[in-house]
Amino acid sequence: QKDEMLPVMADRLLSLALAARHSRMGLNIDAEEADRLDLSLDVIERVLAEPELAGWNGFGVVVQAYGPRAAFAIDWLYALARKYDRNIMVRLVKGAYWDTEIKRAQTLGLSGYPVFTRKTNTDVSYMACAKKLLSMTDRIYPQFATHNAHTV
User: Fold this and answer.
1) 93 to 11, 50, 66, 76, 122: CA distances (angstroms)
2) pLDDT tens, residue by residue, 118-131
């Protein structure tokens, strides 16, 4: 199924990215949901590899800090930006789909959760990922979203 979906999704995203580029707009791709993270990253790589996007700095990805794979995703995006000579935006967020992620794991009877289950762990992840993003500004334009005054 992934082999069928990947090219279709990549083509659609490329069309959106080219339209955004033509309109001089930015485009952020939501790669927040744990069960779709790998597929999202595969689609993002296919699109970033396209020569038509060279020189456009409007491509962005939203990363969810409450996921244990957030730091990995940031490292992976940085490696992609270097590999394809791109500058990309990475917006770090926390909290939007937490309840859904927990409920989905319970419904499927998973042995664990794809997200941190303690707020303090999410806060630590957010700060660690923010620090990581700020060390990658040669290729990454960090963006931050939070409702937590202590994080600011």
Assistant:
1) 26, 27, 8, 17, 10
2) 989 989 999 999 99
